[in-house]
Design goal:
The complex is a heterodimer of chains A (48) and B (565). The mean pLDDT of chain A is 83. Chain A has a domain of 32 residues. The termini of chain A are far apart. Chain A contains one helix and no strands. In chain A, 54% of the residues lie in helices and 0% in strands. Chain B is mostly helical. Chain B has a single domain, classed as Sodium/glucose cotransporter. Chain B has 22 helices and no strands. The model of chain B has no long low-confidence stretch (mean pLDDT 87). Classes of the chains: A mainly alpha (48), B mainly alpha (565). Chains A and B meet through α1 of A and α2, α5, α6, α10 and α13 of B.
Chain lengths: 48, 565
Amino acid sequence: MRPPVEEPAPREEPPPFLGRWGRLYAAVLLYLASLIALFYLFGRLFTP
Amino acid sequence: MRPLDWWILIGSLVLVVVYGLWRSRDSGTVNKYLLAGKTMPWYAMALSIMATQASAITFISTTGQSYVDGMRFVQFYFGLPLAMVILSATAVPIFHRANVYTAYEYLEQRFDAKTRALVSVIFLIQRGLAIGVALYAPAIVLTVLLGWPDRLTTIVMGGLVVLYTTIGGIKAVTWTDVQQMVVMMTGLVAALVTAVWLLPAEVSFLDAVRLAGASGKLNPVVTRLDWNDRYNLWSGLLGGMFLALAYFGCDQSQVQRYLTGRSIAQSRLSLLFNAAAKVPMQFLILFIGTIVFVFYIFERPPLVFQPVELARLENSGAAYRQVAERYEAAFEERREAARGLLEARGKGETSAVAQSLERYREADRDFEAAREEGLRLAREQRNQPGFNDTNYIFLGFVTRYMPAGLVGLVMAAIFAAAMSSISAEINSLATVSVIDIYQRHFRRQASDAHYLKAARLATIFWGAYAVVTAEFGSSLGALIEAVNILGSYFYGGLLGVFVLAFYFKQVTGNGAFYGVLAGEAAIFLVAHLTGISFLWYNVVGCLVVIAVGVGLSRLERAVPGRVQA
């Protein structure tokens, strides 16, 4: 049976936006914090 | 279901299966059959990952859970984006560079053969237990809708999934997942729009949201830390992160999705897309359940949503009639109190609003108490203390109130969700059985064609196994929790050994092996001796594996020959 990859070891590419992976990760974490804040406000706003 | 519903359901099933088989027509080697030749684009992997995770249980049980318990279950997913970032930065490049078919193959490269075998067997047990539940959930749909026996439904569903998974391998699984995800999202949006549209004319969307809030259902963020509370912000962030790390980082059914990526970047993007989309999607599903709850404030819901149990109750005599009368009165009172509350809000009189709110809350409590009394009667009759009807709430609403065509669409979404999860699980179980067990321990040097045939046979075996174990689904409670609890018994150990492999360079094979055993033992002890929420099991198990693994490895180096496998 052949090994799973027949080409040379995969290379690291930059993400398609924000330039570096670290920046993209930070954007995801910021997005999560914003979602939690929005959900919290949503609950507070409509719960008397 | 009406003819139009059947056309939509059958049409979508046929379309998805045929498309998946067409896209997978070139799967004639083990590499292509199990890893799609490492050619998959990020968006296909991303949708496949999401579709694999979103089972029929997600639709059926989560909406019902929101009806009963509010939206706080969404917190369970808060740790997922954190896990996606960690896995993108660590596991994805490691697995890609290791050139492996399975995550467990990497453990032999890093530790030894016995650790790989132990973790592979844990995966097979854990996934094998869960797959029956995943197949049983859609069987409930047809039992409720058509009165088909559970067994026949699971055979038909399982057979269809086995057909395209066996023929097309992971390419068929991934491309059908993409289609199934589209069907699911369409079904979800249609369900929400219809639920809002079915509200009484005098109740606006904002009124519905306010009533849900007054009923305590809008609780998507609970900041109070309580170790025994399943869903709060902290258990979601930390416990949810550990569970997601284990599921996406150590569970072959997910790892295999992003191993098919054509590059590290493509695999990373697929996980990060999931990080962005999963929490809003779960919020949407829970919100549908909340709107269904508000709908039932104005339309009397059945005392028990499980129709067979309800019919049995109705024939049970005086005890039922007493509860039913109380339930009817409580429903009327709650409906009037809700109307009073909306009216007071419309007038904008603060004291009247406060008074109406108090009346509504009291009526809601009375109504819930009457419903609980009905459930208690059903439990007594059935002689099953754990019985609940959560899984029937959303389906009951769909079949009773949604218009022709949309019922078929929602059913298609539920079937799509079920099939996408089951196909991925069967595919990964077959992969681990062949690569980590059969090839590694029974037949090391055989041709590619031999292993391809073995993979196809293993797929058929696991499909048959899923159908047989689905028989146990009927004895479980709220299905989604059952699956998550089952996962949490094993995931802590799996996560711990991969953390050792990635981050603790000094840990030996013996340290990892006995660390996993100690971690699993700790989880079972904690589960049986304490009342802490199952979300914390992963944390406990993972920490014990790390502690024992590191400790034993140090001991082994200090006293060579003392620790023997």
